[in-house]
Task: structure prediction
Amino acid sequence: MRDAIDASHVPTRYLLRSRFASRKLAPARSDAPGAAEKSKETFEPPMSLAQSVFRHGRNPTPASEKEILDLVTQRQMAPYYARVCAAFGIAKDEGLYESMKDANAAEIAALAAKKEDAEANQGDMEVLDALFDAAKYHARIGDRDGAYAACDVIVDRPKISTGKRIDAVMLKIRVALFFDDVGNAKKQLEDARRLAADGGDWDRNNRLSAYESAYLIVTRDLKGAAKKLLGGVATFTCVELCTYPEFVFYAVVTNVLALPRPDLKKRIIDSPEVLQVIKQIPHLSTLVESLYNCEYSVYFASLLEIEKVLLDDRYFSQHTRYVIRELRVLVYTQFLDAYKTVTLSSMAAAFGVSVEFIDGELARFISCGRLNAKVDKVDNVVHTTRADLKSKKYQEIIKSGDVLLNRIQQLARVVSI
Result:
């Protein structure tokens, strides 16, 4: 691909949909619109391996351990082999480790020789290709620090295009996400955004948006992630980060929490891109459709299954409790908005749970200000209270004004001293 594309030639969403309309998504593949060409490229490190390692950490089995070690051995990932053995208490095969380490050293030496030959006998493009080969190899074998350093050499190199610098920074972001290095991922995303503003092309900006989405999920900015994920569903090309079904899963879960009910119908339930793959993701379509159709008992049942999927995902797992709680608040709010008063028994029957459970849930969320309602325990009735938005805004302004006045007084005391 060329290093730069004139912004005036960036394809519109309509053209992209037309161009790829005839392509069908096969299970367990990332044949999303625009992803076919990308799938032929080789990207390192393999995010699927990081996912397998994460799942093994949650539920270790001999089969999953063998699968991970076989892949690590096949790829001769000596640094990552040592890391995995240390993390899971696996007895390290010293002979195997040394043989992989020697193979890594030989390949790194060969790549260094290739770079020297390019500098002596070829041009700048060949030198740059050799530098990228070295960076990708360090990422391939799970050498985090080596990959970082090799990418820095490319970024700091003079007289290379902005596009190539972005490619190096994005490789560094992938390595950071692979190793859950959130701090480094944040810094590299900032650098990538700055470079993209100076001259990134459409494809790189599109992929960078997907990288940002993954980072935002990890840092629990689900509303920020929802917007970027929804915008990327129709133009997905980031096969190096996740599969298309995984990307749609992230988009649907985050946007269920972010979108108003009418937009949820238009942009998720009836979306052609989402409809291509949502049936491949167990219980996800049931969750969304039952919420929209007010089938609350079905929604609760599917919520239990979605929780298992979230726990198994390396990006969502640490936030599963938060996401499930927000999904419950969402559905309780939707149910109560339709009533001025409703009995606890009726609400419990609608959700397919016991009265004691629904009473405990309401008490919890009402007490922390998440639901606008009151529970009358004498008559076992829930009274919905409509929020006075003007009064709420007024109180927020008063509180903000008090905070500002306190700070001004503190500053005045400091200045007078």
